[in-house]
Input
Amino acid sequence: MYSHTISFRDDEASRTNKQRTFLIFGVNRGGTTATAGAIRRLGVFLGDDIGGNLEDKLFRKRLGLDSIRSTIADRNANYDVWGWKHPHPHQYIDDLLPDMRNPRLILVTRDLTANTLGVSSWDREEVDKALAMYLTQTQKNADMIQRVDFPVLLVSYEKLLVKPDLVLRDVAHFCGLKPPASKLDHAVQFVQPGSYQPGEAQNLTLKEKLRHRGSRIKRMILRR
Output
């Protein structure tokens, strides 16, 4: 148990193992990008071609399991500590866990009301559909962390926004990292609600750029 996060089945042997593989997941509009961006700044490699949402394009299901397994093998050969972010990996993760070395899962959670409103607003979904999506994905996440035998860390997006330094200290500990204060501060700076950071946003697709710009305009209007 950590003071600002919750862990299951964690142990020092896994946490300090030279080889560690992280999977960051949650729900759509649930804070996975903020969490992944901070973890990336703490020093965990999350891929090269990750775009503005920090999701590695080489881990998309449409590429097929053989392609994803090949990517995992390549990462294992080149990195001792690495991972990837996917909002809801339930569609393939059971088939890939045997290929992951020392898997450590990071589940990002978000308040039901905030998430439903976020999906309804930014993704233009009806409220009842957005709520159903949240409930379905959350149930799958709960089933997943109970089913696997690997260490799991629960990170509250709300707590991350309110106390980013304390939450990220817990995250760094779970990741087996001991970042200097400067690197921790750099990670904390990434956590800003509703906006990708300039450095990480340079690879946004046109659709993501338009949505990102629209989100900024909406926030400016709300501040008036």
Notes: Strands lie at 6-8, 20-25, 81-85, 103-109, 152-156.
